[in-house]
Design brief:
Layout: H1 19-28, H2 36-50, E1 56-59, E2 62-64, E3 69-73, H3 81-95, H4 97-103, E4 104-106, H5 112-121, E5 125-130, H6 133-142, H7 144-155, E6 159-162, E7 167-170, E8 174-181, H8 183-189, H9 192-197, E9 204-207, H10 222-243, E10 248-251, H11 253-268, H12 275-281, H13 284-298, E11 303-304, H14 306-326, H15 328-331, H16 337-351, E12 357-358, H17 359-366, H18 370-378, E13 383-388, E14 397-402, H19 414-417, H20 427-434, H21 449-452, H22 468-479, H23 504-511, H24 514-535, H25 563-567
Helix pairs in contact: 1-2, 1-10, 2-3, 3-4, 3-10, 5-7, 6-7, 11-14, 13-14
Organism: Nonomuraea guangzhouensis
Protein name: DUF3987 domain-containing protein
Biased composition (Acidic residues): 447-459
Length: 568
């Protein structure tokens, strides 16, 4: 394999770290030497396996299962392929311990009959971890029965194997695979037979390398790691439970418009008409929809949004860049690596038509800095650059358009004549306008002090694991709403009904009677006696009356609610 020092390592667009899956990767990354994109890829594959084969993505007249196959490509020791895989599996095993015991399989069966029999024993559901991915490719190219069985299982189609005793049949298998391979093995195992069979184009090939060097003495404690991961593990468990009840994942109108107007042409331009690249990207569009559905389900939605679609496209684009970076015949195609990048840029802009491509799209596609992209474009006489002022105001956007060579003869120096200025660093700013950029992920060996004060992945403590019964108890406890305390109802007080008033005729009749006359006489004599007593001077000492004692009920809150005593 040729050296990769000529071309810069491919860069991942930050948009791929979206939603719950992105937050999980961001939480793990400071405490792991694994490449963040490797953790994300393994997590997507594990999530696609955990949700079973019920959810399917529906777009237009097509319908697909969500099985996701990932292969992590990195140098031995420095790639941290296994570290990324184990980090993702820790989340899955912490959230779904019983499921993981019955579904995660170390290694992939290396023959057609063994593959079918193994899936039959596992009820058609398996998450296979294949650390010798190169052997799987060789077996797939050598034995047609194995290659056919594995390719049909990616589509969710039934597979079978006939033996002397009976026919072993697996209806609608649901298989996800995470493979690990070195760059040399990857390049050496890519043969024409395998390409013709189409096994490799069912995998998302992601280049990974160690993100940073972490000191062993600066790891966090087991308790701290458990407390850090437990909320995310619970969210992951809830997302799986939600996805298992979803039958179809649909596409929003805004996502449809984004696909039709921009992303469809971007995906089509990834192969650039080269046969070698077509073998890897033949199912790029299928994977965009599968990954978009996984992003949506992880956030407990059954409809794909533009953010989901952009995140999936970013990861598929990184897959194509990884293959171009690693495979000599795909990357060079008769020229140098930089010449190939220039050709890809030119073809990408040409596919956009008269509307052209803005700098944001170029960043998402090629992951280059402004200075590097300026240098590449300056060597393309068929590409012109113009500044377009947005309708709502703000910074002008850079738009690149393709024009035939004869039309650009007088404008070959347009890029260098524009006041000699370098392309401004607006690529990331433009991304901020359309997506929420997650926290910055460390991808270099120059770690900040906060990042260095974290454990190495191989020695980091295992997250806090709970059994399914313990998770159910937590769910039940948090779902019960305590009853609101209410004041005791006061005892009913007997209401006294007021008698109606006496009529004036009855009063007159009573006063005219003998009894009424006697009562009237007593009243008059009593009034005369009081008048005589009021005119006589008082000689006795008048004792000052004491103020009535304040009721204790006013200072005691409980007494206010004791209606019977107050009534008494």
């Amino acid at each position: 394999m040729q050296s990769n020092t000529v071309a810069a390592r491919p860069q991942v667009s930050p948009v791929v770290y979206s939603g719950l899956l992105g937050r999980i990767v961001q939480t793990i990354t400071p405490h792991s030497e694994a490449d963040p994109v490797g953790i994300l890829g393994a997590l997507l594959s594990a999530f696609s396996s955990a949700i079973t084969n019920l959810p399917q993505v529906v777009y237009g007249t097509q319908c697909q299962t969500l099985s996701t196959w990932i292969v992590l490509i990195g140098n031995t020791g420095m790639g941290r392929k296994g570290t990324a895989t184990r980090a993702a599996l820790q989340v899955v095993k912490g959230a779904l311990p019983d499921w993981a015991k019955s579904t995660v399989l170390e290694g992939c069966p290396q023959s057609g009959p063994a593959y079918v029999s193994t899936l039959a024993d596992m009820n058609g559901n398996a998450l296979m971890i294949e650390e010798e991915f190169a052997d799987l490719l060789k077996v797939s190219a050598r034995y047609k029965s194995f290659g056919k069985a594995i390719r049909r299982s990616w589509e969710g189609a039934s597979i079978s194997n006939r033996t002397k005793e009976a026919v072993i049949h697996v209806d609608a298998p649901h298989v996800s695979i995470i493979g690990n391979v070195t760059p040399a093995e990857f390049a050496g195992s890519i043969g024409k037979a395998d390409r013709a069979g189409g096994t490799l184009n069912r995998f998302l090939c992601l280049f990974v390398e160690r993100s940073k060097k972490i000191k062993l003495s600066e790891q966090i404690s087991v308790y701290a790691w458990s407390e850090l991961m437990r909320p995310l593990v619970r969210e992951f468990r809830n997302a799986v439970a939600f996805a298992r009840d979803v039958e179809e994942v649909t596409v929003s109108r805004s996502a449809m418009a984004l696909w039709d107007d921009q992303l469809s042409e971007m995906i089509d331009s990834m192969t650039l008409g080269r046969e070698a690249m077509e073998q890897f990207a033949a199912r790029a569009a299928d994977y965009v929809w599968r990954l978009s559905a996984l992003y949506a389900l992880a956030d407990r939605r059954d409809e794909i949004t533009t953010r989901d679609l952009e995140a999936a496209t970013g990861l598929v684009s990184y897959m194509c860049d990884s293959v171009t970076y690693l495979s000599p015949d795909v990357a060079n195609a008769g020229g140098s690596a930089e010449e190939t990048v220039g050709t890809r840029v030119e073809q990408f802009i040409k596919a956009a038509g008269s509307e052209g491509v803005n700098s944001t799209a170029l960043f998402r596609k090629f992951g280059r800095k402004a200075a590097e992209m300026n240098e590449i474009i300056s060597e393309l006489p068929s590409v012109t650059m113009t500044k377009v002022q947005p309708q709502g105001g703000g910074r002008p956007a850079l738009v690149y358009r393709y024009e035939a060579p004869e039309e650009t003869a007088d404008r070959s120096n347009e890029l260098t004549d524009s006041e000699g200025e370098e392309l401004p660093e607006i690529l990331m700013d433009e991304i901020h306008d359309s997506v929420e950029e997650p926290a910055e992920l460390a991808t270099t060996e120059e770690a900040t002090p906060e990042e260095e004060a974290a454990p190495e992945e191989e020695t980091q403590p295992t997250p806090y694991y709970l059994s399914d019964d313990e998770w159910d108890e937590i769910d039940a406890a948090q779902s019960v709403t305590p009853e609101r305390e209410t004041a005791p109802e006061p005892e009913p007080v007997e209401q006294v009904t007021e008698e109606p008033a006496v009529s004036s005729e009855a009063v007159k009749a009573f006063l005219s009677s003998e009894a009424g006359a006697e009562m009237l006489q007593e009243i008059l004599m009593s009034m005369m006696a009081k008048q005589a007593a009021a005119s006589t001077p008082q000689t006795a000492t008048v004792t000052k009356a004491k103020a009535p004692r304040r009721s204790r009920a006013k200072g005691n809150a409980e007494a206010l609610f004791q209606a019977p005593e107050i009534a008494a």
